[in-house]
Amino acid sequence: MKQMSAFFVTSFVLVLLSGCSNIPKQISTAPSNDLQLNEIQGQIENFANQDVRWGGEVVSVENNNDASILQIVQYPLNHYGKPVTSQSSAGRFLARTTEFIDPVVYKKGTLLTFTGTLNGMETRKVDQKELIMPVLEVSSMYKWQLYQPIQRDPFYDPFFYNGFYPYNGYYNRYWQYQRFGYPYYYW
To answer: Which of 16, 24, 53, 91 keeps 20 to 30 A from 71, CA to CA?
Structure first.
């Protein structure tokens, strides 16, 4: 009996934990020769066909008949592969994919992580300056969701009132609002 309950508890915990890793394995693990953008600056042609994992923030999206090109401001990646925008950038790169990239979905400021191979370089104009950017042929791409913490009011009524209470179920400093005292500006 004791072994059976231990088996069920272990199985239940494993089922719960299996839902926690939804990041693709290619994104969460770095390639064996983890090249960074600052290492290849000025010598891009020497690193042709190298596998890399880079990430950053979308600057622009261009769609052609045969490919979509994203211009990305590169940021260092954390251990999950997510770009850390609080650290300094090493420059920009271009990510080319054969899939259609919708500019509305992948708008400016979206955080992405890519894996793929380096395939040459292209010159792009940023303001009045011409920049040489490495081109990454994308094999996998992951879009990171924006984290928005939930804001809660620190002052709440600890009492629950049923619907027959004359003050609409709530009576404290937010009595004019709906139940549970969350003002409308938190919605």
So the answer is: 24
